[in-house]
Amino acid sequence: MAERLIEVKDLKVHFVTEDGIVRAVDGVNFTLDRGEVLGIVGESGSGKSVTSMTLLGLTRDKNTRFEGEVLYKGRNVLAMREEELQEVRGNEMAMIFQDPMTSLNPVYTIGAQICEAIQVHESIDRPAAGRRAVELLKQVGIPNPESRVDDYPHQFSGGMRQRAMIAMSLACNPDVLIADEPTTALDVTIQAQIIELIDKLKDDFNSAVILITHDLGVVADVADEIIVMYAGRVVEEAPTRKLFYDPQMPYTWGLLGSIPRLDRPKSERLHSIKGTPPSLINLPRGCKFRPRCPHAFDKCTEEPGLENRVEEPGHLDRCWLTVEEKRGIRDKTIHGEMAVA
Amino acid sequence: MSSREDGSLVEVRSLKKYFPIRKGLLQREVGRVHAVDDVSFGVREGETLGLVGESGCGKSTLGRTVVRLLEPTEGDVLFRGRSIGKLKTRSLRPLRREMQMVFQDPYASLNPRKRVGSIIGTPLEIHGIGDKAERKKQVQELLETVGLSPEHYNRFPHEFSGGQRQRIGVARALALRPKLIVADEPVSALDVSIQSQMLNLLDDLQKEFQLTYIFIAHDLGVVRHVSDRIAVMYLGKLVELSPGEELYERPIMPYTEALLSAVPIPDPDLSAKRERIVLQGDVPSPINPPSGCRFHPRCRYATEICQEIEPPLTDYGNGHLAACHHPLNVDKETLARVTASERYTPASADASATPTEPGKEEAKSPFRNDHASIGPDGRLRG
């Protein structure tokens, strides 16, 4: 068994606002082992980013209420003092943010920013840190790292900036790499490069990766396990192949069906999930996906638990439909009329 | 004014848009960004033309020049047969009613201090359509058309989600009942689930209002669903133009092949099996574009000729054009016919010896002969 790095137990993150309590994360459980790539998938507002930021203690605020536990190598991150957290952040768990344009400081060179990350955690002198920075840029595939290290962020293209961000997050050889929509701001061609790079670096650095995205296509190749989040909770959890070939939750079907597919004949209309995600202040009663679900019935006013309902033991979902019912209507929902013909 | 015989609503003729780079005290021009470099194509009435390429390939600049938000450096744009490339602001105004734009970022393209009613109603006001009450009624109808509720009239943009904001942007573009809408990456800032709602909406609106779209995107998966024809751009050049489905079945330009292979497939087994062509590096600088074929530094089929001679945009039949020295997925007869018609000298046996998918070594000699004799003109035919 690989080493268990992260264990999230019944995590709740609520923000107290003037309008009411925002239940951003409402009872999430998952684990992450060394060498694993975990995909967290969901729409904006599903709580995936808040979950990942909470792992690093980045959601702490006087108006935030936490419940449950986030264990990093057995230590509860939620209970750590700020100084302890500082030790973990960047050093043991690092984050790659979505937007490489805004997460780099425009007035410092790329090299200076990487050196800073190194020197915060290690007592090495500047020239040594500089050499490490060059080495890191080389590892993430920046051409001529010796000269590019002195460039400013605006001299880098979007893809290169994201590579620089990754280099920075790798600076202290972290055990856990959290990538929050690392490719959303990038072109498809660059997206493929970055995902491949993250996957390769995971092996080089012997770490684990949490890959957060709204697009199931992005995680299909690299994730070992996928969690689908909706309205602050996990609605389906499965090994990657099972999630793609035997998805149990109608929400997951909706996500799969929304992706324009190049591997299938062109369909007249794309399947889409009607409506928008619910307000996290006023959540619907029962199953949170019920108002948007085409298959909802009476029982759905009661919330189903996250349980194992199929043969595969690690495959959990929150849906009242029986497995037979689901397998009967699933393909039609995902592929629209096409599958019927 | 009726549409022209061939049904073109828009015709772009050898369009060039360069941006000067100025430096120093005297602001002397030290270089030029070749954003759009000699591009020609037509858009038929009622069709959707997808325009695809990586960031920096000039697709947005092209879109903006077509609706004359930018003035072309050279070349011209014809709208219903009328040249609009050099028109002054005043004479452009009536044309603005007929062409509108939907922008990429639904957060930046709506004024946060204006109410939705005013955002959508402003175009009507500018063009003096109706009185206040009529305009309000029209705006509320528009809101319904794009799937929002008329009660949203008095709200501010920040009260809406990204997808809803983009619907407001679409309603604004529709307000004047335009003929042409240029949509610049209208879905790339949205979640996949919302993306498909938007694409379906654009499709419905096209049918309802007989719209013509130029749909700009970087993702070939997205444009497939909306486009009748697709144009691929690279570094300011049009490198392939094809009827929609044909581009996916048999891409001719290696760049298109690479773009296709980069689109993620939500199927782990299939995804693992297929060959992904990872393009090395980024798009080169449009200030000093590479010699010859601009794609050659990143192309896996590139040979010497690609560095030296720029391939002309050639018609491979069925309205499928591509600019490449080493065309993929072209059968021998087509290739022979194409090369023969291009030649100044009589065709030789070289053309038929050309492999359909040339490997590096075997491709070298026959292609060299071929293209040395191809005329330097890269004009569009047909």
Describe this structure in words.
The complex is a heterodimer of chains A (about 350) and B (about 375). Chain A is α/β, with parallel strands linked by helices. Helix content of chain A is about 30%, strand content about 20%. Chain A has 11 helices and 12 strands. Chain A has helices at about 50-55, 80-90, 110-120, 125-140, 145-150, 160-170, 190-205, 215-220, 240-245, 250-260, 325-335; strands at about 5-15, 20-35, 35-40, 65-70, 75, 95, 175-180, 210-215, 225-230, 235-240, 305-310, 315. Chain A has an 8-stranded mixed sheet, with helices on both faces. In chain A, strand 4 and strand 5 form a beta hairpin. In chain A, helix 6 packs parallel to helix 7 and helix 10 (about 250-260) packs parallel to helix 11 (about 325-335). The radius of gyration of chain A is 21 Å and the shape is globular. In chain B, the strands form 2 sheets. An 8-stranded mixed sheet of chain B has the order 6-7-8-3-9-10-12-11, sandwiched between helices. Chain B has a 4-stranded antiparallel sheet with strand order 2-1-4-5. With about 375 residues, chain B is α/β, with parallel strands linked by helices. Chain B has helices at about 60-65, 90-95, 115-125, 130-145, 160-175, 190-210, 220-225, 245-250, 255-260, 270-275, 305-310, 330-340, 360-370; strands spanning about 10-25, 30-45, 50, 75-80, 80-85, 100, 180-185, 210-215, 230-235, 235-245, 315, 320. Chain B contains 13 helices and 12 strands. At the A-B interface, helix 6, helix 7, helix 8, helix 9 and helix 10 of A face helix 5, helix 6, helix 7, helix 8 and helix 9 of B.
